[in-house]
Target: Alanine racemase
Amino acid sequence: MNETPLRVRAEIDLAALRSNVRALRARAPRAAFMAVVKADAYGHGMLPCARAALRAGATWLGTATPEEALALRAAGIGLDEARVLCWLWTPGGPWREAIEADIEVSAGALWALREAAAAARAAGRTARVQLKADTGLGRGGCQPADWPELVEESLKAEAEGTVRITGIWSHYACADEPGHPSIAAQSAAFAQAVAYAEDAGLRPDVRHIANSPATLTLPDAHYDLVRPGIAMYGISPSPELGSPADFGLRPVMTLAASLALVKHAPEGHGVSYGHHYATPADTTLGLVPVGYGDGLPRHASGRGPVLIGGKVRTVAGRIAMDQFVVDLDGDEPAPGDEALLFGPGDRGEPTAEDWAQAADTIAYEIVTRIGSRVPRVYVDE
Ligand SMILES: *Cc1c(COP(=O)(O)O)cnc(C)c1O
Model:
């Protein structure tokens, strides 16, 4: 695994990803599985993760942007392998390219349905459109008051042959907080939106609303398709819900660096920009060559954990663009020794969730922000 010494690497365990997909499928046995691979698969690398998820039984891939969806098709993932849905559109987007690439597009407003229909007409194809209902998240999607009009216009476009409504879908606001009153309200609003559309004559292939937390905790929300993202990468949607192991999941990404320097420093020595840390005694300092330029949150300065020489240490002072320092308490690991920033945790290393807590954020953001300067190394054991 460590043949090439690298400054820093993100090891991506594709066997863990496949096992996570199987564990999630077992929780939603009657639903199809859409692997959500937006934002470069939450920082894990879109194409290898998409292919691994398909091997483990996913039949759909989901992205936010049309560019992400087009990249999946351009890489050779055909309609025989995966249906692809992308949901984040802006006016003037690549509707025609998406339709010609057999990508399903989402419409949560009339303008989007009209752009999809116009592009389909121009291409001489039928656009496969999924209608998005805002059942209470208050983000994308069509409000209940506007739903009848969107359904009416969809029926007209279907009659014209430019559009087929292949899905009806929505998204939860608080599925990671079991018992939150918005969950039942959104579930009821979704059931109503589906019933209205079907009574009006639409015949969607799939109805779906379940993200990771709903896949894990809300069987009634599974419908025809579940759309897990974070859980597939082995991270719990929220620590209150349970640990990854509680759900049979294993973190997929390990962020490992090579210690760049170990040196003695006297008591009272300031460390890193602003001197927010001073050595409390004569000690040894270690330089970890990873910084916010690699996607580490600078907000974890003075708090982020890292395993070096069998002990978890804490970032001393500020995280800089390319590096940070740890107080090694007199220990003398060698330059080149491994510094494990986060991983599954079974070697005693911190987890992405630990970094999230150190930076007052969520683990989603920790893995997703690991940047393009960090090479991904795919392991498959
Ligand atoms: C990101 C996203 C998901 C996956 O959410 P997780 O919480 O990571 O499972 C599902 N559906 C939509 C619409 C999304 O944007």
Remarks:
- Residues 36, 38, 64, 87, 171, 211-212, 227-231, 237 surround pyridoxal-5'-phosphate (CB under 6 Å).
